[in-house]
Amino acid sequence: MKAVVVRTLGGPEVLEWTEWPEPVVAPGEVLIRVKATSVNFADIKARYGQYHGVGEPPFIPGLDAAGVVEAVGSGVTHVEPGTRVVAFPRGGSYAEWVVAPHDLVYPLPETLDWVTAAGIPTVGFTAYQLLAEVARLTPGESVLVHAAAGGVGTTAVQIARLLGAKTIVGTVGDDAKRAVVEDVGADAVINYRHTPFVEAIQEMTQGRGVDVILDAVGGRVSEDSLKCLAPFGRLVHFGSASGEVGQIRVSDLHASCRSVLGYSLGTARQAKPQSIRPAADQVLKWVGEGALRVIVSRRYPLSEAADAHRWMESRQSVGKIILDVSL
Ligand SMILES: NC(=O)c1ccc[n+]([C@@H]2O[C@H](COP(=O)([O-])OP(=O)(O)OC[C@H]3O[C@@H](n4cnc5c(N)ncnc54)[C@H](OP(=O)(O)O)[C@@H]3O)[C@@H](O)[C@H]2O)c1
To answer: Does the CB atom of residue 169 touch ligand 1 within 6 A?
Structure first.
């Protein structure tokens, strides 16, 4: 088969479109012919050797794929050859064929096309878990989403609304990204390059702060987020796009009844795969019904993954970038 392979860590140029052995399905696994896969920020980190979930090169990058089940190993009962699915493959997803553990394979609603489907699993399931399960968002609360124009961001804004959030604010690093964040339903968008987000949130909330903050930037952004988190608020830290580590003082937490929480879909996939299925069921249902939109801004042939990575790394991308096997 053909696949995108990282043989040495580095920039987008290390992504090599090459022949690679087809994966072999084992008991409890599902063999899938990939129709489309998506680019996630973790793929960029993995290519530089900075993602905890990937081992040493050579490896195939990519977290999620959409495709058709070709074969199932013994013990697999919930899908069969011909079932349309999304999945988190055992190896990387930037390949024509993948195998996935059966408990990380999710049948698709019939209405979904491949490009939409491929844009769902990592960002959709994560955004749901962050808001519904980790932050335990309740109707009427306010939410601040950092990097709101991105894959997780555009999904999280919508899911926050579906879960009953009253006020949703997103941050962006470029005015060109404002429109997409407004389009997915944010009440306000802050370009942090022009307006410090702490001051903007304090002004919007009369100094109270927001109830829930989603932070996958890290460093200073994590530290500043705590300055505009309301009493009883939850700051969820789930990534470090900045590569920086923020410092949190426990004395900033107890008297205000605030919490700082962490989440990693990668860890959940490894250690508690069954915990993801309720999120998957809800998110796929919402997308199937049209209640939740997958914002796909660019499609690339799988062979041009390097260009897709360059675009995400430029920080200009919005929504999801899809690698489409049919192109
Ligand atoms: N824990 C989990 O399970 C999990 C799952 C999925 C994703 N994530 C994390 O969630 C974040 C978003 O992932 P995504 O795939 O949806 O990517 P994305 O948001 O589409 O792209 C990353 C965005 O992060 C923002 N950003 C802020 N500071 C940055 C910096 N110093 N360098 C680069 N980008 C910066 C940029 O937007 P602005 O310039 O507009 O700020 C950039 O466009 C990533 O940190 C990712 O690792 C975590």
So the answer is: no
User: Does 54 score more than 80 pLDDT?
Assistant: no
Q: How many residues does the chain have?
A: 327
Cα–ligand 1 centroid distance for 268 (angstroms): 19
How many helices (H) and strands (E) would you count in the chain? 10, 15
The Cα 136–Cα 284 span in angstroms is 20
CA 180 – CA 162 distance, rounded (Å):
17
For residue 321, what pLDDT band results from cuts at 50, 70 and 90? very high
pLDDT per position as a tens digit, 185-200: 999 999 999 999 999 9
Residue 83 Cα to ligand 1 middle (Å)? 32
| Binding site membership of 264 for ligand 1 (Cβ less than 6 Å) | yes
Confidence at 51, pLDDT banded by 50, 70, 90 = confident
Question: Tens of pLDDT along 208-267?
Answer: 999 999 999 999 999 999 999 999 999 999 999 999 999 999 999 999 999 999 999 999
128 CB near ligand 1 (under 6 Å): no
- Tell me the backbone φ, ψ of residue 301, rounded to 5 degrees: -60, 150
Q: Is the C-beta atom of 124 inside 6 A of ligand 1?
A: no
Query: Which atom, in ligand 1's list, is nearest to the CA of 240?
Result: 45
User: Rounded to two decimals, what is the model's pTM?
Assistant: 0.98
* Alpha carbon of 152 to ligand 1 centroid (Å): 8
Q: Specify the pLDDT at position 52.
A: 76
Residues contacting 5, CB < 8 A, separation 6+: 15, 16, 18, 20, 58, 59, 60
What is the 251 CA–ligand 1 centroid distance (Å)?
28
- pLDDT value for 238: 98
- Residue 40 CB less than 6 A away from ligand 1: yes
Q: What is the Å distance from ligand 1's center to 56 Cα? A: 23
Domains contained in the chain, CATH given: 2-120+295-324 (3.90.180.10), 123-266 (3.40.50.720)
